[in-house]
Amino acid sequence: MSTPILEVRRLEKRYAASGILSRSRAGLKAVDGVSFAVEAGSTFGLVGESGCGKTTLARALLYLDPPTVGEVLFEGTPLGGLSRAGLRGFRRHMQIVFQDPNGALDPKMSVRASMGEGLANLGVPRAERERRTAAALELVGIQPAHAGRYPHEFSGGQKQRITIARALSVDPRLLVLDEPVSNLDVSIQAQIINLLLDLKSRLALTYLFISHDLNLVAYLADRIAVMYRGRIVELGSTARILDSALHPYTRRLFASVPRLTGERIAPKMEGDSEAGDSSRKGCRYAARCERGELACHSNDPELHDAGGGHLVACLLPEKNDQGG
Amino acid sequence: MIRRPAARRLYYAALLFLAILGAAAIAAPLVAPYSPTEQHLDRRLAPPSRTHLLGTDNLGRDLLSRTIYGSRSALLVGIVSVAISALLGSLVGLVAALSSPSLDNLLMLVMDSLLSFPTVLLAITVVSFLGYGLVQVMIAVGVIYAPTFARLVRAETLALKNEGYVEASQALGTPQVLVVFRHILPNLLGKVVVQCSITFALTVVIEASLSYLGLGAQPPTPSWGLMLKDARDYLVQAPWMALYPGLALAFTVLCFNILGDSLSERLNPKL
Predict the structure, then answer these.
(1) Contact B222, B66 (CB under 8 A)
(2) CB A195 within 8 Å of CB A222
(3) Is there a domain that residue A112 lies in?
(4) Is residue A319 situated within a structural domain?
(5) Domain map of chain B by residue range?
(6) Cross-strand partners of A7
(7) Is the peptide bond before A101 cis (omega within 30 degrees of 0)?
(8) What is the pLDDT of residues A93-127, one digit of tens each?
(9) How far apart are CA B168 and CA B186, in angstroms?
(10) Average pLDDT, whole number, for chain A?
(11) Does A1 score more than 80 pLDDT?
(12) How many other β-carbons are positioned within 10 Å of the β-carbon of residue A192?
């Protein structure tokens, strides 16, 4: 197989509880040893509940907030080994779209100015910049004639289109989409998703799609990684995850999706979900897990191959207790 | 935009008053009927009349002229010390927010210890070190109000740093210094302008207090604080001596506060 466009190796992001008076020396591990690879041209889905470290992971792998430990390789080049200027030059290849379109555009800047920033950094002359900005806006369905307007003159959906256009303005190869539709109305969500699908095929992009919505990720992604408390607990092709999820947490996520068939919604999960301090032993899902056995509270399961590239981090990945 | 019409009228009234005050301060020699230091010893403690619209003081100086000239000291001290504190404080706040946690802690510790002193006491201390006079007052007041700006700018910068557009700019490969100038500073400006207006009111009071105590403007320089000090001994005989500089002071402070409130409402898109 060719070199994956993005490879993340044992990435950790720790936040030290700083200050002279703080007791905790271990700090908080928001992302704890995450590894995965994204093939060029694919869509990689990352799912998990809020607070599990998805966004921290996204920011760390883009070096917006560099990882504490671990490596990020973009087309085989380790980003950690680059100089500041080198990293800046590299950034054009991987862009990010944020969850909140309202905060993603500078309120004091016209759309044209916001859009031209990346190209200006690359030394593209003004006329060329304006031409490419207009083209990018057209691509996402915003009238280029409106480029002189300010962010508050646009709706949330339009703003998200503009941030997508801004990300695309520097011709990236990888687009990290961090919950790009969660803050939008359902009708707008569908439009943006269709736009993303359309752009991907037209521009041969690779997506890293982050969401809490398993159904949405399953619809878009070729491969899915499920994150829980800073770790990937299950990783596999979308078909495998959909048909034969092995980790109890993944199953629970599917079961929690409301359906119209009249079945009861799965019972609420007990226990808290915050990324705990790193000192605790055992499987981090043990407290909530219905399979939980004694061993789960003392042994921390590693991610291992359950066959056919389907990875799971569970001591008891039984296959026969599939319920509804 | 301010929605309540009453508040808007108040805002325009404050702007008008401050504009008149500013114009009077600049054009003082043209507007004032007499020289502020000229003594008419035959007309001492004269009540307001046609020749002296606001009356005269214990040395027979025209109070209207002195009040007009006194606005010069007040506004000059205000402008210079607000400029000093805004620049100094913003710089410290920016550096603190964007540098390492240890430098941040150190800078904010210095700022907080400055804040922990009572303002007038600190001003007296600084002026005693630097000597008496308006220039010294400007420096002292400028330094004293810098921590308020430092705290404000630091907090705002820390919040702005995590805004999507700042991260997006970084992701687009903009160098850090440019990110600060292009995205952080312009979005800070509104809050700083509001703080300037409120601080201006405070500096006018401090200038008057220090002059009243004899540490600021030195006689015969006209200053509202100094005029109030002179008036103290004649409160019963010539209450107008205290009334007019007092009113000028009170209205100036009030108007700057109204201006600050209105500006914060105008510049805050969420209200």
Answers:
(1) yes
(2) no
(3) yes
(4) no
(5) 5-36+52-267
(6) A37, A73
(7) no
(8) 999 999 999 889 999 899 999 999 999 999 999 99
(9) 16
(10) 85
(11) no
(12) 21
Region of B52 please: left (phi>0), alpha (psi -120 to 50) or beta.
Answer: beta
Angle, helix B63-98 to helix B185-212, in steps of 10 degrees: 140
CATH code of the domain in which A87 resides: 3.40.50.300
Number of Cβ pairs < 8 A linking chain A and chain B: 67
The answer to whether the Cβ–Cβ distance between A121 and B174 falls below 8 Å is: yes
Paired sense of beta strands A69-74 and A77-78, if any: antiparallel
What stretches of chain A adopt beta strand conformation (E)? 6-15, 28-38, 43-47, 69-74, 77-78, 94-97, 174-178, 206-211, 223-228, 231-237, 304-305, 311-312
Report CA dihedral (A12, A18, A21, A23) to the nearest 10 degrees.
Answer: -10
Min Cα distance A104 → chain B (Å) is 4
In a domain, A1, yes or no: no
- Give residue A179's identity as a one-letter amino acid code: E
How many structural domains is chain A composed of?
1
Q: Domain B5-36+52-267: which topology?
A: MetI-like fold (1.10.3720)
Q: What angle do CA A23, A26, A27 make, to 5 degrees?
A: 80
Flag if A91 and B186 touch (Cβ within 8 Å): no
pTM for the structure as a whole: 0.82
| CA nearest to A147, candidates A132, A157, A156 | A132
The tokens describing A305, both together, are 């191959």
Contact between chains at B165 and A64 (C-beta distance less than 8 A): no
Mean pLDDT is lowest, of A178-187, A260-269, B4-13, B261-270, for A260-269
Residue A121 and residue B172: Cβ atoms within 8 Å?
yes
- Other CB atoms within 10 Å distance of the CB of residue B49: 11
CA dihedral for A148, B268, B170, A97, sign (positive or negative): negative
Tell me if residue A69 falls in helix, strand or coil. strand
Cβ(A129)–Cβ(A117) under 8 Å? no
Determine the distance in angstroms separating the CA of A254 from the nearest CA of chain B, rounded to an integer: 31
Q: Name A39's Cβ contacts closer than 8 Å, sequence gap at least 6.
A: A1, A2, A4, A5, A206, A222
Whether B187 and A170 lie within 8 Å, measured CB to CB = no
- Contact yes or no for A98 and B167 at CB 8 A: yes
What pLDDT score does A267 carry? 60
Range of A162's domain? Answer: 6-312
Name the nearest CA neighbour of B186 among A160, A110, A156, A119: A110
- Give A95 to chain B, closest Cα distance, Å: 6
Query: Which residues in chain B are contacts of A108 at CB distance < 8 A?
Result: 186-187
Give the pLDDT confidence score for residue A275 in this predicted structure.
47
Distance, in angstroms, between A229 CA and closest chain B CA?
22
- Mind listing the pLDDT tens digit for each residue in A199-226? 999 999 999 999 998 889 999 999 999 9
ipTM of the complex: 0.83
Inside any domain, residue A324: no
Asked if B187 lies within 8 A of A108 by C-beta distance, the reply is yes
Q: Using CA coordinates, name the residue in chain A closest to B189.
A: A108
Check residue A324 and give its pLDDT. Answer: 37
Query: How far is residue B77's CA from residue B61's CA, in Å, rounded to a whole number?
Result: 23
Torsion of CA B63, B68, B73, B75, to 10 degrees: 140
